[in-house]
Design a protein that fits this description.
- The chain is of the alpha/beta class.
- It has five helices and five strands.
- The chain has one domain: YqgF/RNase H-like domain (Nucleotidyltransferase, domain 5).
- Strand 4, helix 3 and strand 5 form a beta-alpha-beta unit.
- The model has no long low-confidence stretch (mean pLDDT 92).
């Protein structure tokens, strides 16, 4: 683990963290308590209707799980430039932040997380070595948290 990731672990030690793979069809979630659990785990998905509905659903989870940190996957092009979806994610993060201003928010590059999630499913007995489209978003959200903390 490099020093930046050690710092993340120290900075967020014992915090309940929610990872979000924002999508305009399905939003995937993952959960991690730094220092208590060995690694992030999938935490379900929310069917997207609109931003207010998604914010409302997330606020319920945040309150029920005593979430203290949100890590949102930020989609960018392979060259690092922002896409239209990057702007949507940032706008959504602003709406969520307005509802829970006491929380810490971080972005994590989510480049190729869906590809990695599919590969993980196809190589894991946990998923019967099969791609499951109903779980892809929460597995991608898990990878977002793993990348943030370099688990």
């Amino acid at each position: 683990m490099n020093s930046a990731n050690t710092t993340h672990h120290q900075k967020f030690l014992n915090m309940n963290v929610l990872g979000i793979d924002f999508g305009t069809v399905i939003t995937g979630l993952s959960y991690f308590c730094v220092g208590r659990e060995p690694f992030p785990t999938p935490f379900g998905r929310i069917v997207y209707k609109d931003d207010p509905q998604l914010v409302s659903d997330l606020v319920k989870i945040i309150n029920n799980e005593a979430i203290e940190l949100i890590v949102i996957g930020l989609p960018v092009y392979m060259d690092g430039n922002e896409s239209e979806m990057t702007l949507k994610v940032k706008a959504f993060a602003g709406l969520l932040r307005a509802e829970v201003p006491e929380l810490s928010f971080e972005y994590q590059d989510e480049t190729l997380t869906s590809v990695a999630a599919k590969e993980r499913m196809e190589s894991s007995p946990q998923y019967n070595f099969k791609y499951d489209p109903k779980k892809i978003d929460e597995v991608a959200a898990t990878i977002i948290l793993e990348d943030f903390f370099k688990c």
